[in-house]
Amino acid sequence: MASIDIGDLCSGVVTGITRSHGATVTLDGFPTKALGSLGPLDLAWGDARLDALEVGRRITAGVTAVDPDEGVVRLSMAAAAHPELWAFLKGLERDEILSGTIAAVESFGVFVALDDGPAHPVFPGVGFITYPELAWQRFEAAEEVVRIGQRVSCAFLQFDTWNGEARLSLRATQPDPFRAFAADNEVGRALPGKVTRLLPFGAFVRVAEGIEGLFPLEELARTSVEKPEDVLRVGADVLVVVTGLDRERRRLLLSLRHALPGTAGPGRRQPRV
Q1: Strand partners, 251
Q2: Total-model pTM
Q3: Which residue among 71, 258, 265, 266 has its CA within the 20 to 30 Å range from the CA of 88?
């Protein structure tokens, strides 16, 4: 198994086909066991029927996953059908900057037509950005961040062997506002903010450009509160105290009750002017 890596092209013979598990393949150089596995979505794009295969048929496919514990190599015939695309994607390096044009905005992410490399045979672009990788700040719709036809430069994250695409990050090419915020603030600091969202378990407050923190329901008031709407409204200006600052997970926890007059907060400090 050590000699087979993700992204490799392997040849072999189909040795079995079942409706529940797909096709098994005995790979060249590994005659003792049918290591290869092909599911309905692993066939060549445009041909998603397992009955298009037959036992004894010789195939060439790309490796999309290797499970040494189970002794299984997941294969994709689409990789063999588009070797130029696979070679391009396999040659990319983590954090490499790729440029292109926004080709499509979908509910599940954004496609980017890259300047370099081949076009994708199925999707609008070889590059793909998931919503969390579009921007550091919160947004409601992708169109708030990008638009079709816009030129972008993104960092390469990984080769998605399932879809034959380059997973990209637009936000990785921009300064992280949370890092700057965390360097200038600490637990106990009192900050002015504006309420942006009310949820059953608490509320979110914007305390700086691109920075929102959460204060749980129990941190809204000195007395018990059943729902945030009993105490707050969206758009309200509030004074909050930082109670948690997780730099690794980029999480900011706040308290409203610790900022109330006469309340001693955890190491509380007044806002800087």
Answers
A1: 246
A2: 0.70
A3: 71
